[in-house]
C-alpha cells in the first residue's frame, strides 16, 4: 500500500526467501515435498534410476507448514507437493498450480473413475489424488457394548465410556464430528450452525479423555481409551496390534478426505514433475502406500493387486470407491476458516 | 586505563565505573551482534507483522490495522490469557515453596556435600524436555505405572484419572522448572553470613522469627529471580499443556502455535506473541530493579 509497507514486504520476502534457499536446493533437481513416511523410502532413488531425473525429497509435517512456504515464495523451490485437497484448491485459486497435462501422465488411467471426478477438481485438472479415505469411530469391540452407531456415541458417550473417548483436535475434523452429529455439511459456513456445534463440542469435552491426533490408536491398544475419533488408515494401526479393534462409519455419514499431488507453476522442470507423478501412479509403486501404511489409494490396478487377506484383516481397506465418494468431500471453506479456528480455540479453552 | 584497575583497588567505597571502554565494547560485540541479528530484528519483524491483515488464504495482506491487537481483549482470548496466568502462577507458587525448601536444605548441608546435592538437583536438565514430559505420561496415564502399582497393591476399582487434568499440567511445569528455583535460591542462602542468624537468636528471636525477619528478606532477590523464571517460562509454554493437558487446556503458547501452524493467521499470532513478550519483559525488568535495589541495600548495609 504505502512505500513503507512495500519495503517491509520486500524485507519479509527476502527473509522468507533466505529461509527457503537454505531449505531447498536451487538446481534443476526435482524437489518433492511430502509427509514423512507417506511414500516408499526408496521411491525417489528408484524414480531417478528409472527416469534419469535427479530428485530430492523434503518433508513437511502439516499442510499448513508447506502452505506457509509455498505462499511466501510463490511456489518457487518446489516441483511436486503432496497436500490435502482443500489446500490444493487454495493453491489453485492463488494460481500457483500448473495444469495437469494428462498426456505426460499416461498412468493417470489407473485412477478409479470416481477419483477422476472428485468435487474439488473434476477431471484432475490441477491435482492428482494420492490417497483417500474417511473418518469414523475406532473402538475396542470387547469393551464397548452396544457397538457405536452414531457420532453422538462419541460426543455424548454412554456412562461406561465417559472419560475414555478421544477426539481429533485438528480444526476440520473436530468440527466435522459436531457438524455431522447435527446433520450439517462438513463444509458448513453458517455462523449460527457453527455456534451450535461449538456449544455441543464444549459439552462433549466433559466426557472425553483428550484431543488426540497422533496416538489415539495406542490409547485403544492400552485400554486407556475405548472409543476414539479416527482416520480409517490410522485405526488400522490399532487393528494390527489388537484384532478386537474395529472401525465404523456413523449412520449420519462422514467426510471424504483426499490427499493429492500437485505440480507448482514455478517449477523449472515440469516434465520431470509429471514423470514423477506418473511414476507414483504406476500400480506397483502406488500399491506400496496401501500395503505399508494401510491407506486406501485411488488406483484401481494397485488396489486389485492387494492380497485378499488385507481386506479381511482391515475391513476399511476393502471399502468400494463408490461408497467412499458417497461421503461428503472436505472442501476449502475460504474465509470461514478463520471462524473455524476461533471456534476450535473456544472449544479448547473452555473449562 | 584507570578504569579497569579502580574496582580492584577500592572494592567497596568507590562507585563502580560505568562508562564502557573500548575493550569491553570489543568483547561484547559478538554477543550484541548475535542478539541483534537473531533476537531484536526477528522480534521487530514479528511486531510489524502484528499490524497487518491475514490474507484470505493465510498469506499476509499489507494493509495497516490494529484489529489484531484489539482482538486480544476479546473475552475468548483474554480468558485464555487469564487461564495461562493462573496456571503459570500456581506452578510458580508451588515451585518456589518446594524449591526454596530444597535450596535451604542444600545450603544447610555440610559444605563438602553441597556440590553433589546441587548436581542432583540439576540432573534432570541433562535429558530432553520432551522426554521428561513424556515420562509423566507414562506415569500418570490410566493404564500407567501408578495405576499398575496400585493394582499390584490390590486396588481393584476404577483407575484414577490423573493425566489430562490441570493438575497434570501444573505438575509438569513445576517438575521441569524446579531446578531454576533451587539454583536461584541457593545462591543467596549459601552466601548468607551464619553470624546474622546467630545474632538474631542471641537477641531473643525464635527460629521462625529469625527466618521471617532475617533470612527470608535477605534471600528475596533469589526467590524473585527463580519465580520470574518459572512464571515467564510457564506462561509461554505450549508443550506441557499439549502433552499433559491432552489439548483440553489452551494456554497462550498453544494459541500462538495454533495461529502460526494451523489457522495460518500470522498477524494475529504475531500480536499475541508481542503481548506475551511485553509481559515477560515487564516482569524481568521489575525483577532486575528489585535485584538492583536489594543489592544496593546490601551494599549500604555493608558500608554502615
TrEMBL record, chain A:
Pfam families: SBP_bac_8 (PF13416)
Main location class: periplasm
InterPro entries noted in UniProt: SBP, Sperm_putr-bd, TAT_signal
PROSITE patterns: TAT (PS51318)
Signal peptide extent: 1-28
UniProt superkingdom: Bacteria
Keyword Transport attached: yes
Protein name as catalogued: Spermidine/putrescine ABC transporter substrate-binding protein
Native source organism of the sequence: Albidovulum salinarum
Taxonomic lineage of the native organism: Bacteria, Pseudomonadati, Pseudomonadota, Alphaproteobacteria, Rhodobacterales
Amino acid at each position: 500500500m504505502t512505500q513503507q509497507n512495500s519495503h517491509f514486504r520486500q524485507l519479509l520476502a527476502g527473509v522468507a526467501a533466505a529461509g527457503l534457499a537454505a531449505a531447498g536446493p536451487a538446481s534443476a533437481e526435482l524437489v518433492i515435498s511430502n509427509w514423512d513416511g507417506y511414500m516408499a523410502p526408496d521411491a525417489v532413488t528408484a524414480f531417478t534410476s528409472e527416469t534419469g531425473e535427479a530428485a530430492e525429497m523434503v518433508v513437511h509435517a502439516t499442510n499448513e507448514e508447506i502452505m506457509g512456504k509455498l505462499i511466501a515464495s510463490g511456489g518457487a523451490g518446489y516441483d511436486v507437493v503432496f497436500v490435502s485437497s482443500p489446500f490444493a484448491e487454495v493453491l489453485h485459486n492463488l494460481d500457483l498450480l500448473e495444469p495437469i497435462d494428462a498426456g505426460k501422465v499416461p498412468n493417470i488411467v489407473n485412477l478409479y473413475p470416481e477419483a477422476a471426478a472428485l468435487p474439488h477438481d473434476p477431471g484432475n485438472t490441477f491435482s492428482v489424488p494420492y490417497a483417500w479415505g474417511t473418518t469414523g469411530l475406532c473402538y475396542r469391540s470387547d469393551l464397548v457394548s452396544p457397538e457405536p452407531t452414531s457420532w453422538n456415541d462419541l460426543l455424548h458417550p454412554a456412562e461406561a465410556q465417559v472419560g475414555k473417548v478421544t477426539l481429533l483436535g485438528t480444526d476440520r475434523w473436530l468440527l466435522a464430528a459436531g457438524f455431522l452429529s447435527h446433520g450439517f455439511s462438513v463444509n458448513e459456513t453458517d455462523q449460527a450452525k457453527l455456534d451450535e456445534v461449538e456449544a455441543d463440542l464444549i459439552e462433549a469435552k466433559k466426557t472425553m479423555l483428550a484431543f488426540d491426533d497422533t496416538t489415539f490408536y495406542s490409547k485403544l491398544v492400552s485400554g486407556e481409551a475405548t472409543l476414539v475419533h479416527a482416520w480409517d488408515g490410522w485405526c488400522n494401526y490399532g487393528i494390527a496390534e489388537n484384532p478386537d479393534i474395529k472401525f465404523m462409519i456413523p449412520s449420519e455419514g462422514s467426510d471424504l478426505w483426499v490427499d493429492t499431488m500437485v505440480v507448482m507453476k514455478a517449477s523449472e522442470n515440469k516434465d520431470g514433475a509429471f514423470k514423477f507423478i506418473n511414476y507414483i501412479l504406476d500400480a506397483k509403486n502406488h500399491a506400496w502406500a496401501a500395503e505399508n501404511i494401510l491407506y486406501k489409494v485411488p488406483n484401481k490396478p494397485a488396489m486389485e493387486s492387494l492380497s485378499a487377506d488385507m481386506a479381511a484383516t482391515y475391513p476399511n481397506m476393502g471399502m468400494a470407491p463408490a461408497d467412499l465418494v458417497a461421503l461428503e468431500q472436505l472442501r476449502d471453506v475460504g474465509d470461514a476458516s478463520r471462524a473455524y479456528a476461533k471456534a476450535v480455540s473456544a472449544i479448547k479453552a473452555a473449562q | 586505563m584507570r578504569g579497569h584497575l579502580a574496582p580492584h583497588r577500592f572494592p567497596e567505597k568507590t562507585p563502580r565505573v560505568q562508562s564502557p571502554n573500548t575493550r569491553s565494547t570489543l568483547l561484547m560485540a559478538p554477543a550484541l551482534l548475535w542478539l541483534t541479528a537473531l533476537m531484536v530484528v526477528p522480534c521487530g519483524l514479528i511486531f510489524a507483522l502484528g499490524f497487518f491483515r491475514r490474507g484470505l488464504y493465510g498469506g499476509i495482506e499489507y494493509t495497516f490495522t490494529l484489529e489484531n491487537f484489539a482482538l486480544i481483549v476479546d473475552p475468548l482470548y483474554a480468558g485464555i490469557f487469564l487461564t495461562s496466568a493462573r496456571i503459570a502462577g500456581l506452578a510458580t507458587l508451588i515451585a518456589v515453596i518446594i524449591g526454596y525448601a530444597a535450596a535451604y536444605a542444600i545450603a544447610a548441608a555440610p559444605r563438602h556435600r553441597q556440590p553433589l546435592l546441587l548436581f542432583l538437583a540439576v540432573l534432570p536438565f541433562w535429558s530432553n524436555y520432551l522426554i521428561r514430559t513424556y515420562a509423566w505420561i507414562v506415569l500418570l496415564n490410566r493404564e500407567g505405572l501408578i495405576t499398575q502399582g496400585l493394582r499390584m497393591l490390590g486396588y481393584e476399582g476404577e483407575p484414577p484419572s490423573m493425566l489430562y487434568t490441570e493438575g497434570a499440567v501444573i505438575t509438569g511445569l513445576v517438575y521441569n522448572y524446579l531446578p531454576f528455583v533451587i539454583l536461584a535460591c541457593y545462591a543467596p542462602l549459601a552466601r548468607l553470613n551464619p553470624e546474622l542468624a546467630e545474632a538474631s537468636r542471641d537477641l531473643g528471636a525464635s527460629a521462625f522469627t529469625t527466618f521471617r525477619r532475617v533470612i527470608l528478606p535477605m534471600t528475596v532477590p533469589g526467590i524473585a529471580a527463580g519465580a520470574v523464571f518459572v512464571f515467564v517460562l510457564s506462561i509461554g509454554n505450549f508443550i506441557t499443556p499439549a502433552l499433559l493437558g491432552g489439548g483440553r487446556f489452551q494456554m497462550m503458547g498453544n494459541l500462538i502455535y495454533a495461529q502460526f501452524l494451523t489457522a495460518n493467521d500470522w498477524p494475529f499470532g504475531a500480536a499475541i506473541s508481542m503481548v506475551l513478550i511485553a509481559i515477560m519483559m515487564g516482569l524481568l525488568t521489575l525483577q532486575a530493579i528489585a535485584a538492583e535495589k536489594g543489592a544496593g541495600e546490601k551494599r549500604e548495609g555493608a558500608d554502615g
